[in-house]
Amino acid sequence: MNCKVITLLLFIIHVVFCIDPGMQRAIDYLRRPLPPTRPIIDIILSGKFDNLQQNAFRLNRIRSRLGKAWEFVLTDFGFTLVNNVIDLINQNRSIAIELKNSWRTDNSKSKKCVFDQLKQFKRNNPHYTVVHGAINYKTQNPGKDEIKENIRFMYGDVFLNYIFGNRKNYGINTLRTAFGSEDKV
Question: What is the longest distance spanned by two Cα atoms in the chain?
Fold first, then answer.
């Protein structure tokens, strides 16, 4: 084969089969085995709902991992993991994000604490757009976008489109591959 054809084939293989490093890290993280479920320690429930407990435990662990996996994915879009007052910063776009997997992840006390930390970050970094963003929202489309005390609250598709643009579906579909067709986690 001619050298140009081989180079072109290698480039196509790279484009088709290469996954961005943050996305690969997210997939690897989601595929790690879950720890064993601890037995129910309740004199009424013990032995009655063990199968429900195991499924509930697994689902909670998977949801928790999804939040971290999304953080890894955002590193492919110019964000840096901070995990201080905020989760991610994109210096080129001047965006700081507190990222949640769901809009209802935190209880009210935790939300107030996070909101206060975001306001403080905004005061110290007025040129940044500070976002409290959540991947999932209570409705599918379009999500939510509102500003409260200079903090932008974005949930669902509105947030995903803001961050990923036209690569939103790529990110979602690629992360779904972490679970495979048999949903083994």
Answer: 74
Residue 135 domain flag:
yes
**8 Å CB contact between 29 and 62:** no
pLDDT reported for residue 11: 47
| Residue 10 domain flag | no
Q: Is the pTM of this model over 0.70?
A: yes
Strands 80-81 and 129-136: unpaired
- Cα torsion through 159, 165, 166, 170, rounded to 10: -60
Report the C-alpha gap between 81 and 84 in whole angstroms: 9
Which of 4-13, 99-108, 115-124 has maximum average pLDDT?
A: 115-124
Asked if residue 101 belongs to a domain, the reply is: yes
Q: Which two tokens stand for residue 74?
A: 């955002």
Helix (H) / strand (E) containing 168: helix 168-176
- pLDDT of 50: 76
